[in-house]
Amino acid sequence: MATVELRFSAQPEHVRTARLVAAAVARRAGVDEAVLDEVRLAVGEACSRAVGLHRSHGITAPVKVVLTEEEKSFSIEVGDEVPGPGGETGAAEAPGTSGATPGAGAGQPDTETDADSEDEMGLAVISGLVDDVEVRSGADGEVIRMSWPKTPATAHP
Questions:
Q1: How many CB atoms lie within 10 A of CB 72?
Q2: Chunked in runs of 10, what are the mean pLDDT values of the chain (157 residues)?
Q3: I need a surface site. Which of 7, 21, 123, 157 has the fewest CB within 10 A?
Q4: pLDDT in tens, 83-99
């Protein structure tokens, strides 16, 4: 199982680099050419989301991207270090739902709900691009795991 790990400071200008690296590694791993645009877009969305979360929460730690080639699939994990709701470990709720309790955060500016809406929208976009998506949230942050099937190797004459 080959793995490439990429860490970058939470700056929007680094998202493009992450997208390009992801597409190059996916191509080398054997992901179908027709799917590479989806890989690029999904990674861009996941990385942009992680960058936004880091910046809005004042986290200086890098965004982490792990690209893994498995026997029959290729997966990408994008992780942030923003603790999940309540800091609980386990699977996150489905996209479009919020882990926040209604009425929680009273006195918080409306930008918090705007950020939550953007966060949910980002997850919805990723879910629309990738068939196999898993979101895990815990005290140490959130990881979005996306995977694509590899095309069978064909013999070249």
A1: 9
A2: 92 96 95 94 96 94 96 95 63 39 41 66 89 92 95 59
A3: 157
A4: 876 544 334 444 443 33
pLDDT the model gives residue 87: 46
DSSP secondary structure string, 108-131?
A: --THHHHHHHHHHHHHHHHHHH-S
Is 150 strand, coil or helix?
Answer: strand
Q: Which two tokens stand for residue 97?
A: 């739902």
The strands making up 132-138's β-sheet, listed across from edge to edge, are 2-8, 63-69, 73-79, 141-149, 132-138
Going by C-alpha positions, the residue among 21, 14, 131 that lies closest to residue 63 is 14
The reply to whether the predicted model has a pTM over 0.90 is no
CA distance 75 to 149: 9
- Please identify which residue in the block is written with the tokens 């861009």: 44
Q: What share of the chain is helix, strand, coil (3-state, %, to 5)?
A: 40, 25, 35
Measure the CA–CA gap between 60 and 23, rounded to whole angstroms. Answer: 26
How many CB atoms neighbour CB 120 within 10 A? 16
